[in-house]
Design brief:
CATH topology of the largest domain: Rossmann fold
Oligomer: single chain
Distance between the termini: 47 Å
Number of strands: 6
Number of domains: 2
Radius of gyration: 20 Å
Number of helices: 16
CATH class of the largest domain: Alpha Beta
Structural class: alpha/beta
Order of helices and strands: HHEHEHEHEHHHHHHEHHHHEH
Length: about 350
């Protein structure tokens, strides 16, 4: 039996319009000075790229990736990065902006993505924010809460502990002092775990409280948000097929090349979907069939977590990934709306 949380997620995303949206438009922010952007989000493997290219073609748009893995260079197949033909069809931003061993967070993403929005506006193009990393999208649209105090010495101590004992040990510590933050942060995400522990240790206050107080209430942009959904079993079948295609396209070769370049398997980037599974196979920790099965299972679980995140957003207009005309209608209405 599915959990109540999973059932509620799918109930929300398949509900009729009058049940999903309590207001006539998902546009937010009415100040005359605010730029207009369109967001297309949803779980991995659902078809965001196809719809984004259609919108870019219809509305002279440029695409700003909101994917926490597509930012990394040399990681193309496992991140389902748009290929050369797709990137030539419309300007793309926030792809290949960091090396796999660089520290990268939502604050840095927001700064760079803001520049991308400004660049597209100067070109007379509609900025399209496309991706499944909810925190990145939120950081770009609303900014992040004011940074709490930091301590380089404490941060280094926690990094060393993570390197020696594993990030899951720090994740357990975080769960003890800030269960809400731990529930949102993956046990392999050492960077965010360390930052949350740092805030807790220095201030005696959970980072989740700082985030709650910030509230993400004041939007930087006037926006329209489109969320993509499909039947759960159909999505899972599509994810399984996508994993098979990644492997056929050379994912194992890509991971082997990254390891040969000297990138540590324990890096945050190398612990992501696909990369950690192929690494485990290469290191003899998993058989080939087990690596594929685990990759499919973990990707399905990740899609479920993404949906849990997005279903909390009351501003989303939900539609199927093939609903090009419906999406175009929403965008036309949004662009004609007086501010």
């Amino acid at each position: 039996m599915p959990s109540k949380l999973v059932w509620w997620t799918w109930k929300v995303i398949t509900a009729p319009d009058h049940e999903k949206n309590g207001k006539p438009d998902a546009m937010n922010g009415s100040a005359m000075s605010k730029s207009r952007v369109v967001v297309v989000c949803g779980p991995t493997g659902i078809g965001k790229t196809r719809l984004s290219l259609a919108l870019a073609s219809r509305f002279n748009g440029g695409i700003i990736s909101a994917d926490s893995m597509q930012i990394y260079r040399h990681m193309d197949i496992g991140t389902a990065k748009p290929d050369a033909v797709q990137q030539a069809a419309a300007p793309h931003y926030m792809i290949d902006v960091a090396n796999p061993d660089e520290a990268y967070d939502a604050a840095r993403y927001a700064r760079q993505a803001q520049d991308a929005v400004a660049s597209l506006e100067q070109q007379g193009r509609l900025p399209l924010i496309i991706g499944g990393t909810g925190l990145y999208i939120k950081a770009l649209l609303y900014g992040l809460f004011d940074a709490a105090p930091s301590s380089p010495r404490l941060r280094e101590k926690l990094r060393n502990e993570a390197a020696q004992k594993g990030s899951h040990i720090l994740h357990e510590q975080l769960a003890a002092c800030d269960a809400k933050a731990a529930g949102r942060i993956h046990p392999n995400d050492a960077y965010r775990i360390i930052r949350a522990l740092e805030v807790c240790t220095l201030t005696g206050r959970p980072i989740s409280e700082y985030q709650h107080d910030h509230g993400f209430a004041n939007a930087r942009y006037c926006f329209l948000k489109i969320g993509l959904f499909m039947d759960r079993q159909a999505l899972y079948a599509q994810i399984n097929q996508r994993v098979e295609q990644m492997v056929a396209n050379g994912l194992l070769r890509e991971v082997r090349h990254l390891l040969e370049m000297g990138y540590d398997p324990e890096l945050k980037s190398m612990q992501s979907l696909g990369y950690r599974h192929m690494t485990a196979y290469l290191q003899g920790h998993l058989t080939w069939n087990d690596a594929l099965d685990q990759m499919k299972k973990d990707t399905r679980r990740y899609a479920k977590r993404q949906l849990v995140w997005f279903r909390k957003d009351p501003d989303l207009f939900w539609m199927g990934p093939d609903s090009v005309e419906e999406a175009c209608k929403r965008v036309r209405q949004f662009l004609k709306e007086p501010e």
